[in-house]
Please model this.
Amino acid sequence: MRALLSTFSTQELRHHPWRNASAVVAVMLGVALAFAVHLINASALAEFSSAVSSINGQPDVELRARQGALDDALLARVATNPGVALASPVLEVPVQVLVPEGQPLGVKLLGVDALVVAGLSPALMPVTDERRDEPDARRFDLFAPDAVFLNAAAQQAFAGQTQVRLQGGATLRVAGRVNAPGAPLMVMDVAALQDLTNRVGQLSRIDLRLTPGVRAPDVLASLALPANVIAQRPEQSGERVSNLSRAYRVNLTVLALVALFTGAFLVFSVLSLSVARRQPQFALLGVLGLSSNERLRLVLAESALLGLLGSVLGVALGTALAALALRLLGGDLGGGYFSGTTPALLWSPLAALIYLSLGVAASLVGGWWPARATARMAPALALKGLGTPAPTGARRHTLALGLVLLAGAMAFAPPVAGIPLAAYVSVGLLLVGGIAAL
Model:
């Protein structure tokens, strides 16, 4: 009996490879797309958080404007507060720099105060070049209006230039370096940057290091910040960028789920046809002693095999797609959320196992109805060619109509946490309703 079951369970896979391959490919594409989106987002957020931590340092609190720029008149009041040990002003300006090839390169230009930045963000502390003939000049380069300091990525992009020409026409002198990692970055004196970009009196943020032993809420209450100023933790920058990129992540994930749904439907179609073709064989196994539950498990095992094969291929394809997308498009697929960084692929065995299980689960869902039909089959009637009576059409149409009406109602439901989850469910119900009508 065991040898008979082994032969029986593999004959459909051998005799109809192309039909089974369509189900495997559908599951593979669904798993690949979902896993690739997860890897891209996880890698990009990890790289962004690491870069923000290195560049911004570890201030206790960041002060930012709710909209627009921060008035630098606030700096004096904040710096003299007894609960504030250090207050570091920062001005961030995106600029276009003309590289040797002639193509403009987008670079972030940061203005900092060299007298306090080392205590909060050591990676942004300018380090001047050694010039033995002018030992005193190095000291004033930290505040010179035309001096700029490059990180390693900017030095490589500018091919060792001693001057940097901005697209607007200004020319800056390369006076040294900063140790900040990540995308190309230039640092100069904050007052000089305000004058250069016509942003006098404006700041992007103020980083605060609080006096040991004081609580941040108490200090913020004593500061009596204006209504347009918000205080946040440094890690909230990563949360903000994650929220900005959430739209494309959710949409791509829903597309992946649609592909998985298509894979489940193809598994359903393949196994339904397979069960119909092998009804006499199933009946013979039933007469020989194979119970209805054992017949159900046999069909489910076939669907799980299709899903496992598609999921394994999908995880491999998703890894390759994620690596290619990170290299060519960056962590935001060209959306501009992560400032042009090219993060390294962060592969997670746990995530791979989850998405592999998701593909197998989708296949089992697709194989459940054919398996139930096989379990409900009467072996004696099937051997006589009578088969199993088909369900009435009225019930199928009632179910289809109910699903379509429910889909229409779900389309008007409000979003959840800014995501139209009900609308996505509506699309899924509409697809299932159409399939049920057929």
User: Anything to note?
Assistant: The CA atoms of residues 97 and 103 lie 8 Å apart. The two ends are 38 Å apart (CA to CA).
